[in-house]
Design goal:
Layout lengths: L3 H28 L13 H7 L1 H53 L3 H15 L4 H108 L6 H110 L2
Helix pairs in contact: 1-3, 2-3, 3-4
Length: 353
């Protein structure tokens, strides 16, 4: 927030700019006239009033206010210079005082007395009286400011600790989620390996069954061949039973074919059931993955919402802190202005008793 000093300086600058603007207007009127009339042209106050009727009456007040502000600024500059000199005198007096203490500890009493006397002589300057009277108030203000700074630093450290703890908790949560994801992937790989093992076992069983069937069929063929040879050998002896044997052989072949057909149907049904189980397992796995992904997405959205709310609360707290800090600064500025005004009134009363 700009101070009164800044407003006064701004007023002075605007006043000077207005004066220059009016002067340029008057000079511009003269430049439009012929060359032979330039020597007789003067700045006419009536022309100025006619050109800028809205500013003529305020110009005198502005000039008066500008002079007043310049005097006030000069006064503040003198006070600032006096304050700077008093601070230098204070530093020099403290230096002599510390040197006197050091000499006193060294048992150099005369030299210590001389240094202390120098410190006292410096403080006897007339300009140091008000400065000494204000020293206690300044010390209290410095102490209050230091305590406020310590309080702010403690609060800031607590906020940093809370933020670090939050970050640590967030990190642990992400690690837990990563570990859960790793366990899920391991479980999925284990299930896939189990399915592969089961499929391989089924294929091995089918191959063994097929090999056994082929061996059995080979034995059957060999047996049939031996049987045919036996029949051929006994054909001569049992020609009368040839048709009966053929009928039995055909019936046996037909029965065998029916059994083989039933067996193939059973194998086909088992294959269909196995494929149906695989499809159901795949669908269940996909549903589980989708549900898990949806839960994870909702969880992430909830976390993001909480973080945004936490960030908004932190920003609101920061804004409130800034407003309070501005209020304290404004109160401190008003108090300093009041102290300055009281000091000026005291100096006026002393100057005009």
């Amino acid at each position: 927030m700009p101070s009164k000093k800044a407003y006064r300086i701004l007023t002075v600058v605007l006043t000077l700019g207005l004066i220059l603007y009016i002067t340029n207007l008057a000079i511009g009127e003269t430049e439009n006239k012929p060359q032979e009339q330039l020597e007789k042209v003067e700045i006419n106050p009536e022309l100025v009033e006619k050109r800028v009727p809205d500013y003529t009456m305020n110009l005198k007040e502005l000039i008066k206010e500008a002079n007043k502000n310049i005097a006030e600024v000069d006064k503040q500059i003198r006070e600032t210079e006096i304050l700077t000199k008093n601070k230098e005198r204070e530093a020099l007096a403290r230096q002599h005082f510390e040197q006197g203490n050091a000499l006193y500890k060294e048992k150099k009493l005369k030299e210590a007395k001389a240094e202390w006397q120098k410190a006292i002589n410096i403080t006897q300057d007339p300009q140091m009286k008000n400065y000494i009277n204000q020293a206690e108030g300044i010390a209290k203000n410095d102490k209050a400011a230091a305590q406020e700074k310590i309080k702010y630093e403690k609060q800031k450290a607590a906020e940093e600790r809370n933020e670090n703890q939050r970050v640590e908790r967030e990190k642990k949560r992400h690690e837990a989620l990563a570990q859960q994801e790793q366990l899920r992937q391991q479980e999925q790989r284990r299930q896939e390996e189990a399915l592969k093992t089961k499929e391989q076992t089924r294929k091995d069983k089918e191959e063994k069954l097929k090999a056994a069937q082929e061996a059995k069929e080979q034995k059957r063929i060999e047996a049939d061949k031996a049987h045919q040879e036996a029949i051929a050998k006994r054909q001569e002896k049992f020609q009368g039973r040839d048709e009966e044997l053929k009928a039995r052989a055909q019936a046996k072949e037909q029965l065998k074919a029916e059994r083989e057909q039933k067996r193939q149907q059973i194998i086909a049904k088992r294959e269909e059931k196995l494929q149906a189980r695989k499809e159901q397992l795949r669908l269940k796995t996909e549903q589980k993955e989708q549900l898990k992904a949806q839960r994870e997405q909702k969880h992430q959205e909830a976390i993001i919402t909480k973080q945004q709310e936490r960030q908004k609360r932190v920003e609101q707290i920061e804004i409130e802190k800034q407003l309070k800090r501005k209020e304290r600064q404004e109160k401190e500025r008003l108090r300093q202005e009041k102290i300055m005004q009281e000091r000026l009134e005291k100096e006026k009363r002393k100057a005009n008793p």
